[in-house]
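Lab meeting, item 3. Inverse folding demo.
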């Protein structure tokens, strides 16, 4: 999958900036780089009221170019994607191994059941 199903809207910095400006905010700072997957823009309420609607005349072309930039294969073969994905998989594997070791250690810390316990039947 190229995008998580929960991501209803996928913004680029220029589209999110335009959305903010069209709703009465000014861009104070674009914090993240274009290559960062987590888009971060700081807005502040605009002091001027702007009733005119502005349009990005190249917006359609930019959007189409963004949507057709990658195929499924080229998207998943991007170096940054591969390295980030591998690091995540290693992190999850290490967490699983550590959890299994902690569980084994915890189980070993309890004394084994006595023979008396094994002969007792308890009602449910």
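The presenter then showed the designed sequence:
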């Amino acid at each position: 999958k190229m995008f998580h199903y929960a991501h209803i809207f996928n913004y680029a910095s220029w589209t999110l900036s335009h959305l903010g400006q069209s709703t009465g905010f000014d861009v104070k700072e674009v914090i993240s780089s274009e290559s960062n997957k987590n888009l971060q823009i700081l807005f502040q309420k605009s002091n001027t009221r702007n009733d005119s609607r502005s349009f990005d005349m190249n917006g359609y072309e930019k959007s189409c170019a963004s949507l057709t930039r990658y195929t499924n294969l080229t998207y998943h073969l991007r170096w940054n994607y591969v390295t980030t994905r591998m690091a995540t998989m290693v992190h999850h594997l290490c967490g699983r191994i550590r959890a299994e070791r902690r569980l084994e250690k915890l189980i070993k810390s309890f004394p084994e059941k006595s023979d008396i316990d094994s002969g007792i039947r308890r009602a449910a």
